[in-house]
Structure prediction request, 761 residues.
Amino acid sequence: MSGEPILRTAGLVVGYRAPVLSGIDLDFGRGQFIALLGPNGAGKTTLLRTLSRHLKALAGTIEVLGQDLNALPALDLARVVAVCLTDNARPPLLPVDEFVALGRYSHTGLMGHLSARDTEVVEQSLAAVAAGELADRLVEQLSDGERQKVVLARALAQEPKLMLLDEPTAHLDLKHRIEVMSILRAQCRSQGLTVLAALHDIDLAAKISDRVLLVRDGGVSDDGLPEAVLTSDKVAALYDLNTADFDRHLGSIEFRSDGRAGTVFVIAGRSHAAPLFRLLSKKGLAIATGMLDGSDLDACVGAAIGARVFLRPAATGEVGPVLNAALAACAACDFIIDSGPVGIEADTLRAGAAASGRPLLRLTDTASLTGGTERGYATLAELSGAIDHLPFFQPQAGRTMNVERGA
Amino acid sequence: MSVTAQALSEPRAALTQPRFNNRRASVFVALAVLLVVFMLLNLRIGSISYPVEQLLDALFHPSAQDDVAYIVWNIRLPRTVAAALGGAFLAVSGLLLQVYFRNPIVGPFILGISSGSTVMVSLVMLTSIGLGFSGFAPYLNTLASCLGAYAVTAIIVAIAVRVQNGVTLLIAGLMMGFLCGAFTSILTALAEKESIKGFVLWQMGSFSGLKWVEVWVMVVCGGALLASTYLMSKPLNALLLGEEYAASMGVNIRRCRLLLLFLSSSLAGLVTAMAGPVAFIGLAVPHMARLSLGTSDNRVLLPAAGLLGSLVTSLCDLIARMWLSPVELPLSAITAFFGAPLVLYLLLKKGMKS
Prediction:
């Protein structure tokens, strides 16, 4: 019966009195890492609480290993499903190993005495989260990251087949966030554990999960491979993003500039300009850039950041019209940055830039001052300082800064 | 290297049993010895004090026809045993409530549960409801007392579901206490003079004047309740993580909750029926047990709290009798002297944390 799904729902409606999500049909197999994504208040927690039986389903069915969830005795359910809630208990005067041993509840007898095997499982669970050295510490004295690992160990000690986690990485620093996710993933791979985790961190979710569920507009809107589901448009719609964009190639969020601080043309190519784009975007500059290949990393980041990207046409296409448009954009902007690409088009743009008479800042390893409107900078930090001192440049917090200077 | 490996595996081995190390064992022994000492003191000292030999002689010859045997067996022993039992019941009741509400500053008295019992007992004692049932007095009082305790517990739980704030819960408990107090004083005002005196004495809290039949009610009912409570240590431990985690680990929450509240209110009601409302034992003793043993494991904590409750209540009863002798002080006054400052201390500690 290995083909039996761990969890299956049909026509599930969840909510508190009024439905929050409806028409949910899910089917979880063994060893999957499933990320539950959606904005705050979309119903992720409601769905998790219904699947863990903390909340009654309003309609529809939930089957755990082929059995009706409601018909399962609490002890039997605890041997299949473990949960990690956002409300992390801090019981006083409880050592970590006794805390983890509470996870053996459904396996021990009347007074909860641990057998040799129970003790072994507790040890293994602590080892799996790399928290063996915490065993004798008190739970109340742990840091957030340590406690989250111990909470995971307690859930693992249940030897569950399905683990439901509500934002397991909230409040954790990057190191612990990655650690917690890696532990879960390792359990999926090695023990065949199925993980359903509500996550906020879409970057991490896209990179670690086997499958994503998008929750919005009163239902599960998408269900599938993160690589297929998480497109820029889907993510923007899911979180109602206005000032940022998700780039599926990079698997990360890029912030869009509002362009109020001025316009800049970046002569780019050969994948060097991505950090530069982010820097300019943060300064509030509207960016135009060219000439890039569609496969260039600069093109991805540029598009995600909201830049106007002039793409080199495919082999058969005409370069001329695009190049002319780029030249026009170059001439119309406030200043120009040369990030140092090589090639005929780059040289054409350089010539156009020089002819336009706009300030030209050159990012180069050897600061070669060539005079005129062109200046060279060896590092992004130097370049950033130079942009701040351009006469027309108005930082977004400029007004208050000017007041301070005037006073 | 093997030494290191052994040292590493040692704490793990402790897991198979509740950690019963030397410290805990010595705490238990010390508590038991002290309890025996205080109980003997309670038997020996009084308006007439007896030498130990005379006391032991009277204890082992209950049917002897002398004053010592009579006083020890009919006045001091019932009182001493009742105080020890009552203390244990209150402490365990308080511990259960503290686990249930996941709040260290609760107990049967401070949540108004004892006051609920008081109202119901006053109904029996001050009105004619109990007339004609004088032979059933201990049973009737106990029943009324428990019913009062259940009623207040139900109300407090209903409030706790709506407000998740520990301090608000305390205020709710105090208000229940005031309400019950108001009701009791109205009943007192309306009652006949003869019945008031006994009632007022009872209401101040005292284990004096208890008959053997009442002590036996405490032994049998209380014993059964304590045993049932100990059998609940495992779900109680799971509840340390909160109801939601407990449910996910396999605890039948609905049943567990009902049983826990039933046990806790019954224990508190039983003591109140016999000795009147006794303040702060249920709140303070679980803390003393936790601190002296350094654990939250209820398999260890329940017996410890029971033992410590007996000890503290025996001591308080001794102080109440002897401090300003021959005037006997109300037991609740003595227990409040150490209980109320403890509540303030805990509130301050909690406030500083948040």
Remarks:
- The CA atoms of residues 222 and 298 of chain A lie 29 Å apart.
